[in-house]
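# step 3/5: fold
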Amino acid sequence: MKRSILTLAILLTSFTPLSSASSTAITAANTQQQEARENARAAAIAASKAYGSQEQVVLEEPARSFVDWGAIIQPNGTVLTVRAQSVAAAMGLQKDDKLTHINGEAINPRELASTLETIERLEHNQAFSVTIQRGSDTLELKGVAQATVIPGWRLEVDNTISESTVTDATNQSCGRVSVFFTPPVTRDFFPAFINTIDGNNVRHKNPNFKLAAGEHVIGVHELISDRSLRRKSGIDTAKQLTLNVEADKTYYIAAHFIREKRFSRTDGGYWEPVVWKVTEHSCSLD
């Protein structure tokens, strides 16, 4: 079986009383985080399909910036549209204005594209001016360039599904814990990820872990995406799940969203780590 795994984590923090405006802002931030995760998941699937023969795919780009003036200019210099709340709009540029000069240099309609590059090459917060013809009036409009920064990004897609052995026991009987399968959201079970096992940091791409039979303490983080849950962005604390692992059994772990406690964010009372399914599979530490 071959599937793409993209490890995503939304880090959360404790809750303090919020104003209505703050609550709205947090709701918007949560929605953006969820959309970012869904877009990243879609990108991982697309990358897996495009590079399906490779076990691991890494796509990345460095950070960069660009200046978008916010106006579309026809080849003859006439303004076709001005985007609302753009630099061009703030300068007072209007539809049907005719651009004649940029920073005092006359525009050649045959070289308009290269002329507009003058604006695109501006630095962030650099002042500039344009001269326009509006009807019978000649106007000079002044503005300040605003750069948009595209952050650097890196996407790793692992097309292999493997498991890690986390034990130093001599006992060869073992079981497994897993977060591989998506739990049933209709039962308020949401995805989670495992951060520690018996105090050891195990957070990496493998979703399956072999453990010697016996009692283990699993550190679990929630990935609850329900829109009724509001929380600040930050670092959350893992919850501990004590599990008695039996030989040849696989325990599937999820974050159980306790809907009636969705406002209990100070102590994280809105969720708990649970085992939502147990199956039998032979297991050996050999």
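# step 4/5: annotate
The helical segments are 20-50, 87-91, 112-120.
# step 5/5: archive (pending)
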